[in-house]
Amino acid sequence: MTIARKPAAYLALFLLFCVFNYTWATTAPPSRSLKATAAHSAPKRNAIDDSLALPSARDLNLTLEGAHKAEALAHFADGIDLEENGEMEKALEAYRQVLNVDPGQIELAVRVAALLTRDDDYPGAIDVLKDAVKVHPKAPEPYLELAFIYAKFLNKLDQAIEFANKAIALDPQRIDGYQRLFEIHLNAGDEKKATEILDRAAKVRNEDPMYWARLGRLYGSLILKPDAKPAAEETARLNDVFQKAAANGPNNAAVLKEVGDYFASTQQIKEALPFYLRVLELQPDDANIREKLATGFVLTNQRTRAVETLKEIIKEHPEKYQPYELLAQLHDDEARALVRANQTEQATAEFKRAAQNYEQSLLINPNHATTYLRLAELLLVPLKEGEHAVSVLTEARRRYPDAPEFAYYLAIALRESKQAKDAVVMFEEALNEAQNAQAEFLKPRFYLEYGAAAQEAGLYDKAADLFRKAIAMDPANAAEPYNYLGYMWAEQNIHLDEAEDAVKRALQLDPDNGAYLDTMAWVQYRQGKYDQALEHLKRALENLPREDAVVFEHLGDVYLKLNRASQALEAWQKAKTLDPSNKDLAAKIDAQKTRVSKNHE
Fold first, then answer.
1. Whole domain around residue 561: which residue ranges?
2. d(CA 402, CA 18)
3. Residue 171 forms part of a structural domain
4. Which range among 54-63, 264-273, 351-360, 369-378 shows the weakest confidence by mean pLDDT?
5. How far is CA 355 from the centre of its chain?
6. pTM of the entire structure?
7. Distance between CA atoms of residues 434 and 190, nearest Å
8. Helix (H), strand (E), coil (C) string for 154-166
9. Per-residue model confidence (pLDDT) at position 42
């Protein structure tokens, strides 16, 4: 019964007491752990804290006899008001007036004892609880509180254990006594005895699903430690306990959700899914469970079901950003699988769907940093939408000005969208910000990307310094910056000896890389070594994963120098097929056709 604070409600309650003889509530108070609570905060004491949650004073049903009923009820009502106003000492005195009339009010006795322990009045708390025991010797609650007080505040473990065992003997079907005994042993440093208590509780025949769920939590506190992998038999024991919780609560959504979460958290995803599905049957509007289901489907490679589930969530809750995130990841994964299967068009369509869902997520929740990065990566690499990526990353940088990563990725986006000079400026900003923030991305890759932007901006000496910096940071894995350096000098037709040396080093590290073989051919072309260049180009074509317009253009240039004009034209036409927008290539082809025509006149 909830006791209202209004005078009319007090009067109604008084009349009910006059008509009926209420008994104290038989519903067991919820258990509280041995961790600190507001009512029992005492920093100066040892590790054991209270484990029975203070029952709400509003839910007390008082048994008062004779003429003292009205007086006791008035004290009780005063106590509620005083406690809610923070006047705890006066509230305590009012409650004790009630107990003076009827010391057998179990829940109130436990609450008063808790308040007394908060004020360090342990003897007073013990007296209140022992008075309650005299009136109701078969009630376990006072014994549980006595066990707590003796263990935590008095450090008398033998008496505490005795009280906890007494509570278990009075009601072996309740988990509270086992939990109290478990925590006493655990806080005393005896994990073996603590485990034995749980094993003892596990042998009880009990049809209460919450009993098993709470027992599972206690086992989990021992077994599921952050940096330790549980043994197979320990996992099996935990599985059995949570399975019992589910078996005894097939219609209890809260228990089933907890069971599902346990299996999911221990990477037993397939086992978790049936419990989440059952919760969804019981609570069809539970979007959180739908998300867990979708994630579970993803982890078990049930992509179609995951997509269907997420679309249902979005239809019902379009205001939530998380389903869009998950759906985007699904489309992204599917796209990459299609790329591996060489289904390019289908992959592109999936990448676009992924990007659209990430953008929708950002519309709902624009303060999710990771989503900006995921979207930008899609726009930059598979979708080749550099300007769009610049827009996304500019907004991200505005929102996260203290995150140098966004300056770095924005610099890459600017370079990819052919804004090389702006990219160089942004790379320098990223470098300065990263040095100040000690960011982790200042690695060889950063200097390689920065160097590529400087090269495209025509800052060749700066680019060379950046490539050399990348090489010096990790020479054993420097094939790519060596190749960049060699190709840049070959393109500019300067420093050809350094260019040749750089590409040789790249090929020593990766001898069959088609791109590096093409670079060597281009260096040799600039050096006038056309026969050697032709051999390297043929090897490049054999080793490239796919046909490349630049390599075929280089092949045509070499054939022309070797006076093999028809083969040169054929190679250029192949390059034009691969890169139809290359105007310089089209001009080469037209010029060669003109020369051939004149030779035939």
1. 546-601
2. 69
3. yes
4. 54-63
5. 21
6. 0.58
7. 49
8. CCCHHHHHHHHHH
9. 32
In whole angstroms, give the CA distance from residue 145 to residue 133.
11
Which residues have a Cβ under 8 Å from the Cβ of 577 and sit 6 or more positions away?
none
Residue 31 backbone dihedrals phi, psi, to 5 degrees:
-75, 145
d(CA 2, CA 60): 8
> The tokens 């065992």 sit on which residue?
165
Taking the alpha carbons of 279, 282, 288, 289 in that order, is the dihedral positive or negative? positive
Residue 554 neighbours by CB under 8 Å, 6+ apart: 518, 521, 522, 525, 533, 537
The Cα 404–Cα 30 span in angstroms is 49
Can you tell me the distance from the alpha carbon of 596 to that of 574, in angstroms, rounded to the nearest whole number?
A: 18
Token reading at 227: 């940096």
For the chain, what is the domain count?
Answer: 2
Tell which of 174, 190, 206 closes a domain.
190
C-alpha distances (whole Å) from 485 to each of 21, 167, 297 are 95, 79, 47
Both structure tokens of 350: 């999936």
Residue 28's domain is classified under what CATH number?
1.25.40.10
Most confident of the ranges 28-37, 313-322, 506-515, 585-594? 506-515
Residue 177 falls within a domain, yes or no? yes
Per-residue H/E/C for 526-551? HHCCHHHHHHHHHHHHHHCCCCCHHH
Question: Cβ of 509: how many Cβ atoms within 10 Å?
Answer: 16
Domain stop point among 134, 169, 190: 190
User: Which residue reads 């050096």 in tokens?
Assistant: 527
- Joined tokens for residue 446: 């950063």
Q: CB–CB of 424/459 below 8 Å?
A: yes
Q: CA 449, CA 442: separation in Å to the nearest integer?
A: 11
- 276-281 — which CB contacts under 8 Å span 24+ positions? 278/250, 279/253
* 542: its two tokens: 């054999």
Q: Residues 481, 451: contact at Cβ < 8 Å?
A: yes
Residue-wise pLDDT tens digits, 270-305: 888 888 878 878 887 777 887 787 778 777 878 788
Closest CA to 287 of 298, 276, 297: 276
Residues 6+ apart with CB under 8 A from 331: 350, 351, 353, 354, 357
Residues 404-424: tens digit of each pLDDT:
999 999 999 999 999 999 999
Q: Rounded to the nearest 10 degrees, what angle do helices 88-101 and 122-135 cross at? A: 30
Return the structure tokens found at 337: 């699988």
Contacts 24+ apart (CB under 8 A), 12-17: 13/73, 14/69, 14/70, 14/73, 17/62, 17/64, 17/69, 17/70, 17/73
